[in-house]
Amino acid sequence: MLFASVRLITDDVARLVTFYEQATGIPARWATDQFAELVTASCTLAIGGAQTMALFSPSAAVPAANRSAIIEFRVSDVDAEHARLTTLAPEIVQPPTTMPWGNRSLLFRDPDGNLVNFFTPVTADAQARLSHQV
């Protein structure tokens, strides 16, 4: 099995895609005006419009209603990202903080309120644990 992607459902695809392009520096690949993907070496962040849910089950996913998942990106310097994201992110939830498991993490919200974590492994244990990731 291969973990392929995480998909966010939104009422404003263009706004959310633009935010993630600016936050990550990754250009989106658009399939339609209601679906785009930001592809990384390890996983894909897909963004779909609420209208796409009609193809599945209309009420299965509700835009801007997530309070249980964190979208995480490993970055080379979380403190530098914090300085850059201060004007981009609608809300900084937690400034860079070194966590007990060895990652330095920055938590912020995207325009739909989804929680995002940019992190850098800073201890030897965290670096070893995440060494398989590029």
How is this structure best described in words?
This protein has 134 residues and is α/β, with parallel strands linked by helices. It folds into 2 domains: 1-63, Signal recognition particle alu RNA binding heterodimer, srp9/1, CATH 3.30.720; 66-134, 2,3-Dihydroxybiphenyl 1,2-Dioxygenase, domain 1, CATH 3.10.180. Helices cover 19% and strands 36% of the residues. It contains 3 helices and 8 strands, in the order E-H-E-E-E-E-H-E-E-E-H. It has helices at 13-24, 78-85, 124-129; strands at residues 5-10, 29-32, 35-39, 44-49, 70-74, 91-98, 103-109, 115-121. The strands form 2 sheets. A 4-stranded mixed sheet has the order 1-4-3-2, covered by helices on one side. Strand 7 and strand 8 form a beta hairpin. The longest helix is centred in the N-terminal third of the chain and has 12 residues, at 13-24. The protein starts with a strand and ends in a 5-residue tail after the last helix. The mean pLDDT is 93.
